[in-house]
Each structure stands twice: as C-alpha cells, then as structure tokens.
Amino acid sequence: IAALLEPSVDLQIPPSSTVVPDASPLFRMVHSPASGYGLVATEDIEVGTTLLVEHPVVIIPHDLESLSQMSDSVAPLLAKLPQEDHQEFMKLSNCTPFGCGKVEGIIKTNAIPIELKSQEDTDSNSIMYHGVFIKASRCNHSCSPNAICRWDLQTFTLHLEAVRPINLGEQITVHYVPLEQPRSQRRAQLQELYHFTCQCDHCNVPDKLALAGDDIRQQLLEFKGRFPSFEEWCFDLEFPDDLLIRANSRGLDLIKKEGLEALGREWHADRIAMCAGALADADLFTEWIQQVREIRVKRRPEQIGAFDRWLEDPTTFPIWNWRNQVRDGAPPQYEDGSLTRFFSPPPNAAWPHPSLNTQESKSQGRDSGHIDLPEGLLCATNIP
Where is the SET domain (predicted)? Predict the structure, then answer.
C-alpha cells in the first residue's frame, strides 16, 4: 500500500490473508462505449452477498484539492507498489479536465472516503482519508444502485455488498453522489465531479416520472425527522401503537419503488421488528425478525445465534413487551441514554464522492452494551 499519512495516524494493516480470495469471482470486468469499464455479474446474486473484499493500493489525505501540491510525495510512493498493482492503478479511469496530471486525475476520479484511527485523544478518535481500490473503482454509478461499498477499519478492507438481487449479466453499480437529491442536482454534481450526464434508469426518463422519483427521495430524506424515535414511541402512549410500524412499512415501499435499497432497507425493518417485540406481537415479530436476520447474517454470521434464539422464543428479545408494560403502569427500568439506535446506513459506508456531505461518510459513534443484540437493532444496556 502506498500511503501518505499524518504522524498522528495509527496505521495497523492486517495481513492480506484477511481478504477473501477471488477463486470464483462473482463478476467480470467488461467495456462498453457508453460507460467505459464496469463490473458485470457472472451468476445470479442474492441480497447481502459480499461481492468483493479489497485492500486499498493508495491512501492519501482527505483534502483532494491540495493533491497537486503533494505530487512530489505521491510519485515516489507509487513507484514502490508491486509492479502489477502499479500497472493496474495506472489503467484506472481519469475523468479530470486537461491540465491535471495523470496520477492526480486517477486519484481524484477513483478516491473513496475511508476512516483511519488517530493516536490523538479526540472525541471520535478517527480521521478521514481517501483510498483507491483497483477492483472496486471499476463499479459504475447508478441513481438506484444494486450494491454498496462499506469500509471495515478492523480488517482494513473495502467490502462490496449486494443490496438487492443482481441477475446474471447485470452490471454491478454503486452511487457516487447522495441519492436523496432530485435528478437535476444529482446530474449536476456528477457532471461537475465526473464529467458525465447520468443516463441510468431513474434519470433517463420523462420529466413526469423523474419528478415522481424526486418526491419519493425527498420523503425518504425527511423520514427520520417526521416520526418519533423508537424510545419516544415506546414510552409515550399518546403515539398510536402502530405508528412506527405503518410509517416504516411505507418507507420500505418507497425504497422498493424507487430502487433505493442502498439507503438502508434494514433501518426500517429493524424498527418494525423492535415495535412488534415491544408490543409482544409474536406473529409480526417473527415475520420481521426473520427478514432482518436474512439481511444481516451474511455480513455478520456470528449473529445467527441471537436471531435463532429470538425466533425460537420471542420472549427472549430484550425489549419484549415493553410498550405493554408502560401501558400497565409498570415501565421497564433503564438508565437514561442507555437505549441507543445503532443503525445508520451500512456502517462506514463509502461513497458518495468525498467532496459531498463528508460528515455522512463518517461512522456514527456507538455506545457499548452487554446484551447480545446484533448491530442494527436497538442496543439496551443496564437492563435489570
């Protein structure tokens, strides 16, 4: 790895054995006149499948605008890469305007935000950088992508994961810009950053359909601010019992209609399962915890035990019947702040482009808890 780092960065790179070998890759690289190189599925792929696990070949500071000032430092680093990695790096796309150096252009075109650990005593104990990944860089953009890139600092790898079924021969796509924006803004940003006009299935449509899609994206953008949190709903009986169940079911319908699974379908499924558990609705809980299980265990197989235990006996779910306990005048006891929503869009999700909404690319702070609740479900700590 060619890395240009600040002294405060704690760079602990695990051995390459942490990367899943591509013995039977689920994709192949193809070229088309319209979109250049891209990755195409070589078989039908299920939701949640990890398509690729990859170390970066280049790591550079977060401020790409100052990259030209670092050219004297970057070139010697690249020269130390293994010959094959160096050759593949130099083959990556460069969409920057004339006048930008080739190496600088390749980095600006392909850099993905990643989070590194800082040795300094800061609140987040992390610092943002950018990485260039040989294979993941070949993923083209779609405004309704079928995959996401997720950075895993622990293994120092980028994971490419399917967020909906991908058919044999279908192109594997990710998003370069925030998906909640209207078509006009998405296209404008893609033109500014990557110098192309998006012609994906959700952009190359009549204006009437594009406006309908824009409305759906706006609803999803505003979703979290329009409804109470799970904790607020659970302990405030003025909210209808089915409020969050209906709301999150609607959110899932909107996601499916607009092909926005990359925004986090599991966020809504989690909350429906939690509400069903708090209401002690065994049938609804079983239906939704099974769906959450299917979403999560491919990424975190060690969580299967917890899900299977809840499916076998829903009453073992840590927040089982809580809403009804509140109704009966005997609310469960817990410490203030001990209920934490773990889920935000997939942890350490990489992309959109580093110059856009950089705060969104940072992982969310997480409280720890001793109850075995898989990441993505409410974490309840200090519960009697």
Answer: 15-177
